[in-house]
Structures are given as structure tokens and as C-alpha cells.
Write a structure and sequence with these properties.
This protein has 282 residues and is mostly beta strands. It is built from two helices and 17 strands. The protein folds into two domains: 138 residues, RlpA-like domain (Barwin-like endoglucanases); 98 residues, Immunoglobulin-like, CATH 2.60.40. Helix content is 4%, strand content 33%.
Length: 282
Amino acid sequence: MRRITTALCTALLLGCGHEATTLSPAATPSPLASQDTSGACLGHCDAATPTTPVVSDSGGYGDVTTYGGVNNSNPSSGGACNYGETGITHYAAIQVNQLPGDLQGQWQGGRICGECVEIKARTADGWKRTVARIVDKCPDGNCGIDLGGAPATDLMGAQAGRYSGSWRFVSCLGETGVSDGAPSLFVKGGSNAWWSLVQVRNPESAIVGIRLRPLGSSGTWDTLAWAVEAENFFKVPPPILSDSTTTYALEAKTRSGRVHALSCEARLFSRAGQGIPFDTLR
């Protein structure tokens, strides 16, 4: 995937800081962004030395770059999360690797798709903050978070580049520009009565699993498997597709532990390109 990353920059560990110890042309920061209250950067904040991202279940720190440039408010065209054309203006790509080719980044085959992330970057004016939804992957070496659309301008102003920063995963609820409609279950193009893939669009946070069973049943839930045909999709079992008149209760569990729920007839899972709105979030 093509990346237009405008960059030269300082790492979080070797990048812009506010201590007296001096490098050229910037100062050494506290190693953890959480310990750095000022976020002030001396020298060329937009030209940080590329660094290996440090990640955890809650976020990470490393390079903050842009593939959309600044002063670009065009919405996302979906990226590797396969959302297609969207109205989402606050979006980003996340690293596939920590070390080149190790696949140990937070992308994890697209399972982080739809997560919202609060990103902070060190600037000459201190920390700047924005929130974006993950819609794409960044396979480039040293990628941490790669910003598209409006978030790049939020953090970088008029100066695109490679910044030192941090990110943490947050709920998408109430955040500006990260959704283009209500949460829904989308049926992939090409789906039919014998084969169907589905994904959740505009979720509260990334989806970790989808299950369903006949409405009103107290029996065992059927858990949908992650699709191998496309990233960020789940596969509907053929026996459910053939049971077209049965109404199913469906639950999509998010990374935060909340659940999107709906009920619909099984025949809707074969209607390619259709969005089925969720009834509740609990």
C-alpha cells in the first residue's frame, strides 16, 4: 500500500524533549510520554529520527506521521479495513510491524479496524491532541501512527513531517469526525445465498467477535469466524444462510467490552452491499 509519508524526525526516546541534556538539533525527552507534562520540543519537531514503535494493549509511543498531508480534510476511502468510500474525516493507519516484517504491530490482520485512538505529538507549542478512527494499515518501517485527513492538521499545523508522540485507544462515542452514520452490520459485495461476509461499520470500538442464534432461543450461540478472504470481515456459516426465514439475534462485541445488538432475518445476510442497523449498544 502506497504511503506518502512526509518525514525526517526525532524518536520518542531520542527526540524532542524539554530536559537540559542537548542533542543536535533537539533535546532528549522523558522516555514515556505519560511522564512528560509539557510536550515541548526544541529544534525541528517535524524532523524526528525514525524509531521503532513501542506498543501495548492500551496504545503506544513512537513516530506520528501523515499520508494525507496537512490542510486535507478529504474523507477516508476505506483503506485496508475495507470500509469503502466513507464520510469519516478523522482517520489514521496503524503499524503492521514493530521490527521489519515481524507482524507484531497493532494491525494484527485488521482486528484493530474501527478502533478510535487519541494521538498526541510534541510540537514547539507543547503537546497537541487529536482523535482518529483506524481505517488502514501502515507497513512502512518505523511506522507508529500515520494520519490522514483532518488529524494531521490538528497536530502538525502547516508543517507536515515525522513527529515524536504517543497514542492510546479510546471509545469513539462523542468524538468528532470518526463516524459517518449509526453503527451497522455491512454485507460485503458479492455475498449471496451460499457465501457471505459481514463487518461492523462505525462501531463504538474495534470488534473482537460476532455471534448469533435464533431470536428467543436459549441455546448455544454460533460464533462467526474471521474471514480469510478479506481483512476486517467475518464469515456467515452456510447453514444460517440457507435458513433464510429464521430471525436471528446477533451480537457484536467490541474491544471495550460493550455489545452492539440487532435482530433480523437470515436472508438479509446474503444481500450484498446492504447495511443492517444495530438496535442497541449495551
